[in-house]
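Case study B.
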Amino acid sequence: MKKINSFTYDVHAGEQITIAVTPTNFGSSLPDVEAVLDGTDLPNTGTNDAPVFQFTVTKPVGQTHRALMEFIFLGDAPPNSFYQVDISGQNDVGCPCGFIIAKSNPVKEAGIRFRVKAA
Amino acid sequence: MKGSAYLNLILVLVLCLSPTLCLAQNITDCDQLRGSIEQLEKMDINTMSPSLRQLYKESLLTLYTQLNQCLMHEIDIATDMQKAVAKTGAAASVESKLRALINEKSDIDGKITVLRTTLNLAGAGPAPAGPQQPVPTAPPTSTQGLRTKSGAVAGTTGASGTTNAQAAPVIPICSPSANYDDAPGILKDLVTKHAAFIVSTGDPDFAVQTGPQIVLYTIFDAASDNSSKLVRALEAYQYLGETARTDKQLGASAKSDGAVSAIEKPGFAWLLGFAIEHGGITKKNDGTNLTLSTSLYSLYALARKDTAENYARAGILNRVALAASFAVDNKNNDLANVRRKDLTEWSAKVRLFGDRSTRAAKFQTFFAEKIRPAISERLREIGKSIEFLETDFANDVDKVRPASAYSDLEDATLTPLPDLVRARMACPNYKSATTDEQRAKLLSDVILGQLKTGIYGPVKSGQFKLSQREITHIEQQSLPGLKKALDNLVQADKDLKKMFEDAQTGPLGTFAYTNHRQANASDYSETKFIFEQDKSFLRPLKLTGNFGLSFYNKPDPALNQQKLRDVSAALSFDGTSRSPFTEAENQSKITYSFVGRYERLLENRRLAQRKPDIGTVQFVMEIPFMKGLSLPLSLSYANATEEERKKNVKFNFGFHLDTDKLFDLLKATTSH
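Model:
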């Protein structure tokens, strides 16, 4: 996987991509992240407190996998709470990859693009 | 000086425009390329004629492209080295070098994108890495040559270099490529929020935080008149569950000097968050007492990290809070009061039962069943719409475009966007803008302009052709599906807020231990069971009850003291009402309570000047004013005090400035 920017990555067919989320500074507030890959729910294979979303690149070269995610901050989430999103694949270039969605960010969703490139 | 600069320029140009020399430099000598680039970058382009300026930009682009290739080669080598030296003493320095190379390449990619854009070259990104697909694109609409004639940025591999945003010298681009002020509300809302966040963080990567979504909304706007009408009818999405915090407290105990209330509240729910956000310990000075409070969990988290996973692991540590109060003699330096001799009391609270947090099992079940599906539904609708446009063309009899066309169109618009935003941030009028709102407007214009030229234009003009089947799908399935999902979220938000409020009203039982230290009297310990129930028969009034026993640490028989000091009980009924004095976004309410307290002080028995049975009735009110400022006041009547058999009436008032709330409200105001 190769980083283009925090929300765009080049990947290869068959590559396994992992999106690991670390909710931080939530204290007693419930964290939650929902993710959808190409219009289909992407199951959380981790826990609610440490969500992990994984998928394998299956689209043909030239097309793009899109992971749409929403990060929930409930009313009791402290002002300094945030989600750290770490994205990894194989033979990563330009990483550590990912981004942070903080409570201070007025947009609580992200659309991550994984452009499928020839190996 | 000027002549020498031109001579340098010409020498560099001759060197790099010579195919043989440049080829030799491609892989072998990154340092020489860096030197040449540095020389060129130092030149003042304002003194150049237009033709020389063009030549300057072209030669700079050539050098950047060569350095980019050279860096790729070096990154490959360093990656191999990294693997070879893994887990050895050399790993750190190789890792550091690799990161530096990646960062440098990222900067160069950004510069290439900007230069190619300003030079009107086809494909504004850096050198393509994969097979390029022809992309039907927009006609040139830029007043500054922002877009290429084809408008395409197909197959780009540009990296915007988030982490080096400030270090990379950027060529300013000082106006948007097009005006898209009339963009649909749902799109404009997202872009405006991104722009505001970029202004506050300085990170242009957030321009593409919702890249696929903003591209899709633009396509909806351009696909047909009907789809444009439908997308414009969608309300901007308000993220769930974000309500202003209106309550917090963990002051000194009800008995300490300066306390305005005669009853103690569980006050635990908020403590944790505050302890954490203040680095583990919260400090509160009411003018009479300085109270430092913390929780065992926040101390535990200091040594690790306050992740949700650690919170779940911490178990009982989440239930224990600690506080210490000190008499304030130094008003200028709070922490100077933290001395053993000024310690007036310390206390510990343990939550026995009840959980008002959103981690409570009941809340989690509700969230999983009612809220999570609604959140996913909106994401699914957006994802399905994009997926249809990207892949369903194959089922379309018209076969209107190549397989990668949607990705290429999206990519051509989104990939250069962080660099365009960065280039806008380098402009004099951005830097001289006096407010964040002005800066955000400049950036949102860039993002919307890019969407207009890169997406709206090609779709509207038919250069990116949508089939009738796709347009019908957008009108009859995508947009109605998205609207339904958004409507469901509005209802989910109402349910969530109601559930959140209900969670605050469940029974909560706390055990408190307080050690009172008195300068001219015997120290004693107080144990108390505190119960709070909002859903009582007296609703809307909230019921709080205390029952406690206190013990002397060392009873003094000369003062008629015995081990058991007193038995006390208190009952409070609390209510709230809207405040007419606060701003619209401030949800703080007037709070009031009626408190009755009875205490049997054993040492006062058989003393003529004292009364063993002491009763107190109190009315306490706190009126919030603007932005975190409130007026607490209390009126109390007591039939005696612990020291005197004398009835008394007391009236206390003061001002309370809540800096946390003030900060939140200021931010809320800004974001509005």
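Residues 26 and 78 of chain A are 6 Å apart (CA to CA). The remaining cases will be described in the next quarterly update.
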